[in-house]
Amino acid sequence: MTRGCEVCEALSGATSSIFETEHWTAVLSPEQGYLGSTFVGLKRHVSSLSELSDEEWAELHQVIKKFERAVRGAFGAQVFNWVCLMNNAFKAAEPKPHVHWRVRPRYDARVQVGEHVFADPNFAHHYDKHHTARVDEVVRSQIQSAIQACL
After folding, report:
1. Is the pTM of this model over 0.85?
2. Burial environment of residue 129 by CB neighbours within 10 A (0 to 12, 13 to 18, 19 or more)
3. What DSSP line would sit under the chain, residue for residue?
4. Per-residue tens of pLDDT for the chain, all 151 residues
5. Which CATH number fits domain 6-149: 2.170.190.11, 3.40.50.1100, 3.30.428.10, 3.40.50.620?
6. Which residues of 22-57 are buried (b: 16+ CB within 10 A; e: fewer)?
């Protein structure tokens, strides 16, 4: 773990892990504006995609297949937006970029989880980073369990 790295800290303290592989960890995001939004981080600290080993790339392919299949099975996601921007790392005085992905599943219909209804008002368009929804621990746990049941 690299001291002061937000990604390293998030991965080490993750309480809503969906699954792990040898090289990657998938953690449900606290932000659920897009149902099933997840953070997928490389377990070792590297600052660029070009630093990934062939084994890490190959395993990432399996992580993508596994995650998308599970979320599609749990909630009927139509498409997945995978972004690896790492811009926030450079806001710090001493940048510590760390390879990770933010995944936003997208839906063409409303989905209900417990008492909470999720809607994707911009489906078929770029995701809206301001489309946010914090859910309580009960709903978060239901989302996590539903995805894990489809792994």
Report:
1. yes
2. exposed
3. --TT-HHHHHHHT-SSEEEE-SSEEEEE-SB-SSTT-EEEEESS--SSGGG--HHHHHHHHHHHHHHHHHHHHHH---EEEEE---GGGGGSSS-----EEEEEEE-SS-EEETTEEE--TTTTS---TT---B--HHHHHHHHHHHHHT-
4. 677 787 877 777 777 899 999 999 999 998 999 999 999 999 999 999 999 999 999 999 999 999 999 999 999 999 999 999 888 878 888 888 999 999 999 999 999 999 999 999 999 999 898 899 989 999 999 999 999 999 9
5. 3.30.428.10
6. ebbbbbbbebbbbbbbbbbbbbebeeeeeebeeebe
| Residue located via tokens 């809206």 | 128
Q: Which amino acid is at 41?
A: G
Q: In this structure, what token pair is assigned to residue 125?
A: 């368009």
